[in-house]
Amino acid sequence: MREDVFNFKITKNLETVGQYDMPKITAFSPGDLQCEFLIATPFNHALTEIEPGSKICHFYLDDYQFERVWREPSAYIPILRKFNAVIGSDFSMYSNLPKPQQIYNNWRNKVLMAYWQSNGVKVIPNIQWSDQDSFEYCFDGIEPGGVVAISTTGCHTKQAKKGFMLGFNKMLEVVNPQKILCVGKLHEELQNNEKVIKIDSFMETRRKLWVDVEVNLKPNQNTN
Hints:
- The protein has helices at 8-11, 68-71, 77-81, 99-118, 158-174, 202-217, and strands at 16-17, 22-23, 40-42, 56-58, 85-87, 123-124, 147-151, 179-183, 196-199.
- With 224 residues, it is an alpha/beta fold.
- Strands 3-4-5-6 form a four-stranded parallel sheet.
């Protein structure tokens, strides 16, 4: 039976900042990425990843697929340490969620990122926001000037893209990252931004493999 249901063991000694006591996250240096190419592995495939040292693990998934890292945080440290880097967890901050729940999920993500960093995991801070009200806390604790990560997953409508770009521009102002890893489709507004590095999501990588296989399996049409 789990006794520490509030995770006091990993939260009590964290250095925090801001009105909402957000944990401090150390900046990730571009030099800490030691693989020649960037491929993102979702956490639900982390156990079966055969080459984690050349991959970045991410949590851009439905929350239920990684709730276990919050319930048993120490159990997954050995797995995460194997990856070239780990993008911080991404408990949801949908704008239609109650504000306390958004704050709680943002706090949980930062607790885990700080805890992982203290245990030797190379963490790329995950930056997330919802509406403009979230700007009062969502960037707190993130040390400026390093590499950060974002995701455009689920951001399809004009309204969603507009809200995304408001947060993106605010992040540039407050966090001032050197590089921004983007998992998912690049919006048009991001395509010419020299700081942004596109990383294929797991399904994008799979689709490219399927296309390559389909092309290779087609019969040779050259009759000469």
